[in-house]
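Handoff note, outgoing to incoming analyst
You'll be picking up this chain. Sequence as last confirmed:
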Amino acid sequence: DLDLHYQAGSSAAGTVDLTILLDPDANPWNGNEIEIDAGTVARTGTAAVAFMEVPVATGATPPGTYRVAARIADGIRERVLAAAGTLEISATSPPPEIDPATVRIEGGLMRFTVLGSPGQTVRVMAATDLEDWQEVATMTLGAETWEFSDPATASFPARFYRVDEAP
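Most recent structure output, in case you need it:
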């Protein structure tokens, strides 16, 4: 959430437009800002300052370093308030998963393809009862797939598998 303190309008009557922006270059006037929220807020007049918490959802914003800014406009004037620091948005990888079309017993071993993102560290967990999960393998992916095979397949009459991102 963004804590926003603002002052707007010569009187407290009416509203002003508020737009929350992410700006990659600290120039809020060159048109490359990314709008992440917009709405109206109450005017404060010259004798008051308002405070509000603005929930910020960066959504599909590309990874990078941004300045957070708020643009306040009353139809005649426009002002931009910028936070002193920057916000770093990093890429997130989707959670790894087992490709269900590849699950099979082959050569006496349980085999399947793990889907993930290159550089992501994933682990295969196994259980005989869906409660007591044990890690059976960990791999840092060099590609989007990993062909997993369980050498302990013959040791269990039944076994369940899941994958997750390793901590």
